[in-house]
Amino acid sequence: MNALSIQRAIRLVPNDNRVSDNAPAFRVMLGWQHIGDAWERMSRTEPPREYWRVRIDDPFCPLSAMLFPDAEGMTAQLVLQV
Fold it and tell me: The organism sits in which domain of life (predicted)?
């Protein structure tokens, strides 16, 4: 993730402890630290497109975003919600 003051590699790790359908599908990790969560969603466009609703916890500036994977699933576009 590259932002104005953040240049860090983050990763999404599958949440193997999902206790309900509303639980996050992924944990957002920075190294070994859990910094947020991501939920699977489908867009309302035609055709529907899979994306993840991402929440990154930060005491100074919590981030909400949508993460849209490319067709190959190797990279993704992060769209911040203001």
Answer: Bacteria
CA distance 74 to 59: 30
Q: Which residue has the tokens 């983050």?
A: 10
CA distance 39 to 37: 7
pTM for this model (two decimals): 0.80
Please report, for the chain, the start and end positions of each structural domain, with discontinuous segments joined by +: 11-81
Question: Using H for helix, E for strand and C for coil, what is the string for 38-73?
Answer: EEEEECCCCCCCEEEEEEECCCCCCEEEEEEECCCC
Beta-bridged to residue 54, according to DSSP, are 38, 65
Q: Which among 45, 58, 37, 50 is positioned nearest to 77, based on CA atoms? A: 50
Summarize pLDDT for 36-52 with one digit per residue, the tens. Answer: 999 999 989 888 889 99
